Fold each of these.
Amino acid sequence: MSAGVDRREFFRRIGGGIAILMAWRSGPAPAQDARRVYPEDFNAYLVIGTDGRVTVYSGKIEMGQGVMTSQAQMLAEELGVELGSVDMVLGDTARCPWDMGTFGSLTTRMFGPALRAAGAQARATLIALASQRLGVPADQLVARRGKVSVAGDATREITYGELSRGARIAKVVDAKAVLRAASEFTLIGTSPTRLDARDKVTGAAKYAADIRLPHMLYARILRPPRHGAKLAQLDTSAAESMDGVRLVRQPDLVAVLHEDPEVAAVALDRLKPRWDSPSADLDPDSIFDHLVTAPAPHKTALDRGDPGRARTSAAHLFESTFRKGYVAHAPIETHAALADVAAGQATVWASTQTPFPARDQIAQALEFPPEKVRVITPYLGGGFGGKSASGQAVEAARLSLAVGQPVQVMRTRQEEFFLDTFDPAAVVKVIAGLDGQGKISLWDAVIYAAGERGSTIPYEVPDARVELVGQTGYGELTAGSMHPFATGPWRAPGANMNVFAIESQMDILAAAAKVDPIEFRMRHLADARMHRTLETAARAFGWQPAAGPSGRGLGVACSIDAGTCVATIAQVEVERDTGRVKPRRIVCAQDMGIVVNPTGAKMQIEGGLTMGLGYALTEELHFRGGEVLDRNFDSYAIPRFSGTTQIEAVLVKNDELAPQGGGEPAITTAGASLANAVADALGARVFRLPMTPARVQAALRAAQAGAPAAQRG
Amino acid sequence: MQLTAVNTRALFFLKTDWPLTEGTMEIRFRLNGTDIHLSFDERATLLWTLRTVRGLTGTKYGCGSGICGACTVLIDGQAARSCLMPLSAVAGKSVTTVEGLAVGGRLDPLQQAFVDHNAFQCGFCTPGMLLSAHALLRANPKPSREQIVAHMEHNLCRCGAHQRIVDAVADASQRPGVKS
């Protein structure tokens, strides 16, 4: 805190107590984004009220991944309070410390330390206060369960609420705050009932489209039939003649609004647009040649040894090309926002993973200063990266400004597919070599459009090169240069494709070396954590070593993602006559360091692998140029009950390591483990995801015809 | 995947074939145990009447075409897709939404089983899951795991809570007091 006036204003707002404020310059949070200049505002991590209740403020939002509960656990652990006395305020830009967004499996591993430090700082402050009040040296005091008590004398204690009463103390988080040791944990490492459980089973949980304001209007926005189409003509007369319909017509935003969303839908249907559409040439099959030939920036991600020489000296070379189509995020909650813009102030409730960047986008669109825009983030009905883009919040704010009433924008399912920022279609070409002893001597990969994450193999190879084409990092690709529509981060962006390619190729090499695929990986693994994780998975599965293809339908895949080591073993059954792949069993071991909430961590593994069944087996966007042909869940098939299977998640104990990422790592192994399982079942490999029945049958036919591996799929 | 009667044009509320002239109708029905009397636009669907007129936002819009099941409610104990249901179709009937499951603040056995098994993540599909499961247990109080899977097949979950949902439904079927 820099000024007394601001401190008074702060306490006027919160009504006294003890507050722990952020200190971006000294805390660990700036590591999230070194380029950002952190504002020194007065948003707090936590406030201890005079009633002893603790309010925690976090820019990280709850989209199902359980961070409302796990953040509360971390804070309560350090502070020494019961979980039940913690109230969470998430994703409110007016009240929470600045945050870049909830993605990248960063909440626990990057924001967690800051939150825990705030808790530890508050505990130290409470102990110092209690020391004065009780006349006992601080080192003889214990802070637990909302009380400071004298060690060895249970009768002498004082509650946090009592200490907070009359206090107006604001402390900035000190980097030196001492965190509790893992051996002291009573809340971290447990799985209490989720804080959002009751709200979610009673219907009380509010999502953005559930917020109601007096005089609000529901907007329906005119969308082009395909990306790139231009509005040539528009007849609005029929819509405008409808009772109570408001029309907003701006160069890049046409909407009809009504107090009844169903009437707004009819009004939209009565708009008569004429569109000039560009020609459409790309489709889900031709996209791959386009990706490898389109002019695009290059980047070398890995260059070790002399891959050129290794290519000529290798005993055996294996060349493969892997492909994957566009994949949609398809959260069950479509993007929604309610904006109330009045008197130069905007308040926007939005389903967004990035409330602070959304605030800045809204401010820019409205030409408001950012401090005049407040974004509030209710529960999200799934995000998966897709709600990092918050266009609906900007649209709602612009429309509210235009009509002078609160406006809700909620995308239809068709709009959700059309406007998605898809996981990009991608191609990976790999040339790998084996030496005479069955060791990998060469890894030479070119990655088109997938990006860098997961591109570096976790195995020891003397000569290795990885070249990235089309993308040097997420978001730098301009839509239109390579893709017919927007692409963006999708749960572990890039890693799903890259791990699919790496781990499929590993199985090809293992089979050629006639070595069990787990044994083959063990021989090449440099990372001790990954080694132990793979051992754990093999033991949990009951793995019996055999060189592939074994006919058993077993597939393994390893991945190191977001600091976490994952090893997955999948068992499938493949119907040879239909080509249908049925997952039968999945075992996944994960070393994610200290586990804050074991059940929550397992649910992320289960959820990730279940979601991963989609991109592995059924999900692929249908399109014709910029026209998105999938409009609903009938043609775009996400996993259903009958297609899922039991997932046995095993957490490798590692309390030596701070908590690592949990939301994304497991899904990166889904495509590869299933592809390897299919290859193990059939003796034929599918090189393109998803592994549709037709592609499985084609792989079988190609194997029977004896085609070289690289041409299959 | 078998789907019936899905309007592939999928124009949001599927109203394009409906009369464009507006008429007001009267309707009486029971909603979560309370008698309701409404005047309404004859084009109204049950989903949007619940969400906007009644403020019962626990019933969700997910696809607008009856595919995802997020809008599932019970009509006289049968699971129904409220996004496809004209409001006029529930005249004289009894409608139960997720808000009507807990009585006096006490969770019903299915809700409690969902909590106990962590049978949700984002929670957006949960109301529809709960009401579909209710209809199942009403018709088949002791379903096998396969029967649960078959019944829940047309309720979509993107977070991957499927197996926990099956666990919760199976567990609830063993608990006393599942409402029908």
Note: Residues 1-20 of chain B have pLDDT under 50 and may be disordered.
Amino acid sequence: MRTISATAMTEKNKLASSYPWILCLEITVPGLGMPIRICSNGEDITWKGETWTAFPFEMDAIKETSTGEVPRVDLRVSNVSRAIEGYLHDYDAYCKANGYSAIEVICSLINYANVASGTPEVEYNLTLIRPRTNSKWVTFTLGANNPFLRRFPPNRMLKQNCRYKFGDERCGYVQLGGSGDDTCNKTLARCRELGNSRRFGGTPGIGKDGIVIV
Amino acid sequence: MANWPTIETPSIDFEEETYFPFVRTESEGNYVQQRPRSTRSRKRFSLKWKAMTQADYDALVAAFVAGELLTWTHPVTSTSYTVIFSEDSLKARYVAEDRWEVSCQIEEQ
């Protein structure tokens, strides 16, 4: 069962509380020096020693079910100033240069009566599945990591078959072009014929039979 | 941030509103549970000028079209507020020679 702090519990049970519940988002965009920290309050707040900037955003309710579904939720952040869209363009350029890396979002719900404590009442770690933008909102579809979608095993090593694409950076063979002999059938024998066996992408020394998972 | 244009103060019957939203739930037991949505309230002002000069009206329109945040001083309390025009139109009516009746809404940011 999820528990909240005694201070928040007291505020929750009051008929008229003077402290709001504030949603804080820490958006870590790869390639950006520091995370974007925004909160749903009417003014900036200081929490966990950091300043959380008041910024307009909306978030759907995060549903928790007992059927093992991976939660998915839409987060809409204001795009009137195009500030967040600028970060997304930088992120796109970063992914093209360095490969894909997910945007991580930590959603923390705090009660302002307990703002001195660095512990949120509820916290979710989500990753960006899909961003969309228009003139008013940047919509992030967020979800949790689904282990069933991960590739397993992460790498497959074959004894006689090269795993590199012919002529790419890892193969390193410089194709002459135009010549009919300039082809590869992924075998060590062919790699030797081409004089490139030093960079052969197979692993002839891994043993004889069966499958070994390391 | 720009300053509010140097124009005459609004008419005496300008309106002020303190906006502080609450989340409220009514109970069958005839009581209400509520909490604030935010730690901060905001002011909204409805300004009127009964007979503004053409020069003042032009200055106000220029500030309205610029769409910037403005520093406005409350005519009664002399408190400074950072405000923005909260409506998409600025209404005016020509009432006499070189005189406009103008009204506008501003709100604290």
Note: The mean pLDDT of chain B is 92.
